[in-house]
Amino acid sequence: MLEYKTFELGNLTLQHGATLRGARLAYQTYGELAPDRGNAILYPTWYSGRHWDNEWLIGPGMTLDPGRYFIIVPNMLGNGLSSSPSNTPPPYDRARFPRVTVYDNVAAQHRLVTEKFGIERLALVTGWSMGAGQTYQWAVSHPEMVPRIAPFCGSSRTSTHNRVFLEGVKAALTADATFAGGWYAHPPVTGLRAAARVYAGWGFSQAFYWRHLYEELGYSSLEDFLVGFWEGFFLDDRDANNLLTMLWTWQNADVGQTPGFGGDTVAALGSIKARALVMPAEKDLYFPPEDEEWAVRHIPDAELRVIPGVWGHFAGHGSNPEDTRFIDAALRELMSL
Amino acid sequence: MLEYKTFELGNLTLQHGATLRGARLAYQTYGELAPDRGNAILYPTWYSGRHWDNEWLIGPGMTLDPGRYFIIVPNMLGNGLSSSPSNTPPPYDRARFPRVTVYDNVAAQHRLVTEKFGIERLALVTGWSMGAGQTYQWAVSHPEMVPRIAPFCGSSRTSTHNRVFLEGVKAALTADATFAGGWYAHPPVTGLRAAARVYAGWGFSQAFYWRHLYEELGYSSLEDFLVGFWEGFFLDDRDANNLLTMLWTWQNADVGQTPGFGGDTVAALGSIKARALVMPAEKDLYFPPEDEEWAVRHIPDAELRVIPGVWGHFAGHGSNPEDTRFIDAALRELMSL
């Protein structure tokens, strides 16, 4: 659903020093909070995703069943619904929007969960891509609140290669002079379309394209997929400064940057108390399974379960029923523990 | 060596219809042609490479020993030395430079080899990346002339995913308004730098970046590698129209488009008479080994030999001594057959 609720954060002091005054967290909930407040699941959004983009994994008969659980989907800061460059009044508007970390996102979400709903313990935190990053951060920031995590197609620390991939996206977007350092009078459409084309090669695997699986998504040709899916994706109410805010969040994600860990990612992973079911996708080009093997080695109670197949990163996007069934079944197993 | 020779092609009629008048093929040779003309090796260049960029695989004691073989390195059309947008006089100059196929390149090289040197049979054709594509094309265009081919980190047909990767590079380059549809007054430096950053994620593997192997290449940080290596690469006398000409050649490469095969890549591969030693790199992100497994299945006398390790596509660039030794040893084995 497109509707959402807003939690007023007031003054949100960010990890890198700015205070976002009148900050807001947009969110949506599915199901009813049980009287003992023990059935809440947190399911953060991904890069440019909105709460409604998470709904494919929620529904009657699925593990995330609103008949059983109270599912909270907080929108990431910068996504255009929560406080973002596009909706923040001066002076922190547009190109002046401050740097936001994954830690900051989780701090804001923690206030929603505790202050608004009085929840002391979440049954599960799960998420795709940057949502997986927020999932890891929850387990590090609030280990006592998180008994289970299921990050899929994401990481606890953005790898060097992943940062490079994002440099390409950023460089393409900002090569458009219309961008004007973020003070654009009109959307930098050429840059957005270029960023989309850069992203296209990364989002799905080589094998996905080899088999022309975009045809299964309803696209008649490769160019139809590049324009219809990818350019459409980046033009669908995506603001350039918003995209760059979230891109910075992503490039700089690292649970080791949680206060108290001094940059030690391994120590941060070691502090996780949750049972972790970690699900990279077999052919994910920017969150490859090898990176998650590394993370799992450092989490006390973790299992690596690779999503098989050729959909690459978008295995976790809800587009391929087989991958959705895999993720849903894994979540069911985790919730039964 | 920076010096080169020029073969005058005269009127070069291209596969897509234009005639390039006064076309030139720039080339360099290493070693002496034997009296029986039986010791010639052809070693075409790669995307934006020049003949001197191939010299890492040539030398005394190596398989491509100028003391034994006569090694011809023809520069690809569009690379700035052979006929290119940047050096062709009007009316086919700059943005009007015609579309050139891999077939066209090989046709021009065939004239050099036969008309200039009177060679009837090449001992070997080998090449990296787009050079591998030209290698395959030689074996299809002139099967009787080519007893051995060793394409490494390339393909006989550009895969759909590979085309998408290149779309991202192209979109980043042309997002710079300075490009002006190819009629730029000054080099589109922002676009070239953006294209370089897009390329950076593809050229080396995730594991290469994970291990910070760019430090072995002499770069002090990731940003130093992105600017010093990648942006420097794209600014090193690389002309934007030249890059786009070669990019079109690459995106449209397919031995099945050889006249007589009617687009049937499998039939074209089946017509190869050469002994083929096909060497993809284990973690090449745009020429993955799976694609070359497919090609090898359709070539009558072919072996797949994967270059192990984490250097990705740049395993074939001469930067990593271990990969260079692997390729050199494989070539030695092939030449002994």
TrEMBL record, chains A, B:
Q: Which InterPro entries match?
A: AB_hydrolase_1, AB_hydrolase_fold, HAT_MetX-like
Keyword terms, alphabetized? Transferase
Q: Can you give the residue ranges of the AB hydrolase-1 domain?
A: 63-315
* Record-annotated active site: S129 (nucleophile), D284, H313
Q: Name one Pfam family in it.
A: Abhydrolase_1
Offer an example of a GO molecular function term for this protein: acyltransferase activity, transferring groups other than amino-acyl groups
What protein name applies here? Homoserine O-acetyltransferase
Q: Which residues cross the membrane?
A: none
Keyword Transferase assigned to the entry: answer is yes
